[in-house]
Amino acid sequence: MSFFSLFHAEVVSFFNIPLGHFWGISLDSGKLVGYLGAALFSARWLLQMGASKISGKPVLPRLFWYVSIAGSFCLLSYFTFGKNDSVGILSNLFPMSVAVYNLYLDFSHRKNLK
Question: Concatenated DSSP letters for 59-85?
Fold first, then answer.
């Protein structure tokens, strides 16, 4: 058995640990990761709104991109190991790559200002 298939099997088994039923919803560790990703991905807009309110103009703080990457990573993990859903994987891979690129631009811009 190759390392990748062993790793994949272990992660998939982690994503299927049952955690119980709450409000009529069956919860397992994979769904918990998915819910965390959805919460992070949504919360980034609250961060953006707060930063814009403070500065008095529309801004995207660096934390917006970090939270975008964290949320995308959780959702990619959920769709890869929990659901095995290619649509979910593709729909979260692109925003993650945009967030990484924007962080790169932010770091490059700040380095050039020094």
Answer: ---HHHHHHHHHHHHHHHHIIIIIS--
How confident is the model at residue 10, as a pLDDT? 79
Provide the 8-state DSSP code for 58: -
pTM of the model: 0.80
For 108, the domain range is 3-113
- How many angstroms separate the Cα of 92 from the Cα of each of 10, 71, 98? 23, 9, 10
Give the DSSP H or E segment for 22: strand 18-22
Residue 83: how many CB atoms within 10 A of its CB? 15
Looking at the structure of the chain, the number of domains it has is 1
